[in-house]
Amino acid sequence: MTSATLRHSVWILRGNPLTAVAAAGVTLFVLVAIFGPWIVPYDPVASNVSEALLPPSAAHIAGTDQLGRDVFSRLVIAARLDLAIAVSAVGISFVIGAVVGAFCGYAGGRLDRTVGRFVDVMMAFPLFVLAMAMVAALGNRIENIVIATAIINLPFYIRFARAEVNVRRNVGWVEAARACGESHFSVVLRFLLPNILPAMAVQISLNLGWAILNAAGLSFIGLGVKPPTPEWGIMVAEGARFISTGRWWLVAFPGLALMLAVLCFNLLGDGMRDILDPRMRT
């Protein structure tokens, strides 16, 4: 990061403190995911029926669930799984979608139109329903959840890369690269893709939040991660049965963690758009 970009980023953060809060929140979630196994006070899968459904206290700051498992420990360990699913899925869809979209936008013609219609058809379906169908067909294993989430994220990156490269494919510096003997393959990978990556970083941040919500949603309806693995969606689904009996902490804490994670990634994406938008550099 150059000094000019750093100064511009600081200026944006000073004018929009929510972005700084979101960045701090994302950093906290990442640290919790990395160091979670070393900071949890209890085994997240060990049950103790004698301590079942205890409210928050000094011994269990987020209470215990119906099997006596510490809710806080399960929340912390679940952060690693949910973030790992989201990062893996978004990473796969970003790499494939950016490359496919960039080459389609550069080539134009029949290939571009065909891929464009395919993407339009995919986005015509409710993407969560599409993910449900794929996981139900493939089986609710973690790798299948990653694959399904990556596939339903592909249209965003293909459309974005197509549009951005289509605008840039005939600009002066691309013509100069071709005049210097660069192949079409090299022009796309060495010149066009790096040029659109900063703008795509905004979409990555937004999709990370949506991917976390998608993984939790699949688990909530029984098509995601299998119990007793700690996962935010499973914890909400299990706790929902006890809302009517006043055990609010079983739903409140995992729901809050899920809400904050999605909110932080969305706010960070908005802040990154301001930082990377050249119109803001005035």
From TrEMBL:
InterPro entries: BP-dependent_transpt_permease, MetI-like, MetI-like_sf, OppC_N. PANTHER family: D,D-DIPEPTIDE TRANSPORT SYSTEM PERMEASE PROTEIN DDPC-RELATED, OLIGOPEPTIDE TRANSPORT SYSTEM PERMEASE PROTEIN APPC. GO terms for cellular component: plasma membrane. Belongs to the binding-protein-dependent transport system permease family. The chain crosses the membrane at residues 20-40, 83-106, 118-138, 144-160, 204-225, 248-269. PROSITE patterns: ABC_TM1 (PS50928). It is found in: Cell membrane. The gene is ddpC. GO terms for biological process: peptide transport; protein transport; transmembrane transport. This is ABC transporter permease. Keywords: Cell membrane, Membrane, Peptide transport, Protein transport, Transmembrane, Transmembrane helix, Transport. The lineage of its organism: Bacteria, Pseudomonadati, Pseudomonadota, Alphaproteobacteria, Hyphomicrobiales.
